[in-house]
Design a protein that fits this description.
Layout lengths: L20 H24 L12 H6 L8 H9 L3 H7 L1 H23 L11 H20 L5
Helix pairs in contact: 1-3, 1-5, 3-4, 4-5
Length: about 150
C-alpha cells in the first residue's frame, strides 16, 4: 500500500515545512525551559559539594576517569566565569562537547523561529568515528597523565 503525502508535489525536505509552526515553537519553549532550569541548578548548586548530581558509574567501579568525568563541575565553573578552572576539570567537555551542544541548540532554535539558517554540518560516519576516537583517546590520556594541575 502506497502512502500519500498531503502535498503530492512536495519534496521530502518540504514535508517539515508543512508541519504547524505552533508545535515547533512549543517544543522550543519546553526545551528552553528545561535548559534554563538545568543551568540555574548548575549555577546555584556545586556538583562537588551538593547531593543529587550524577555520580559517574565508570569512575565508581574502576577508579578511572571517563571522558565525561568533571563535566558537571566544569559547567558549574563556566557558569561562574571561571574558564581556567573549567578547563582543568574537563577540557574535552569545555572545548568540544559544550560548543557542539550550544551550536545544535542554536541551529534548532533559529530553524524553528525561521530567523536564519545556520550552516548544518553533515554528520558523516567519518566525523562520528573521529569524534569517538578523540573521546576514547582523551579518556585514556587523562588516566595515563592524570587530570590537569
Amino acid at each position: 500500500m502506497e502512502q500519500t503525502s498531503p502535498n503530492p508535489g512536495a519534496k521530502p525536505t518540504e514535508a517539515v515545512a508543512d508541519r504547524p509552526r505552533g508545535s515547533g515553537r512549543r517544543s522550543l519553549a519546553v526545551l528552553t525551559a528545561f535548559l534554563c532550569a538545568g543551568l540555574l541548578v548548575f549555577y546555584f548548586f556545586d556538583p562537588s559539594t551538593s547531593q543529587g548530581f550524577w555520580v559517574c558509574p565508570f569512575h565508581r567501579l574502576t577508579g578511572w576517569y571517563c571522558p565525561g568525568c568533571g563535566g558537571q563541575r566544569a559547567l558549574h565553573e563556566l557558569l561562574h566565569g571561571h574558564f581556567a578552572a573549567a578547563l582543568r576539570l574537563n577540557p574535552f567537555a569545555v572545548l568540544v562537547f559544550l560548543p557542539l551542544a550550544v551550536y545544535a541548540c542554536a541551529v534548532y532554535a533559529l530553524r524553528v523561529l525561521g530567523v536564519v539558517r545556520l550552516p548544518a554540518f553533515p554528520v558523516k560516519m567519518g566525523t562520528v568515528a573521529v569524534l569517538l576516537a578523540a573521546t576514547i583517546l582523551f579518556g585514556i590520556a587523562r588516566n595515563v597523565w592524570g587530570p590537569l594541575p
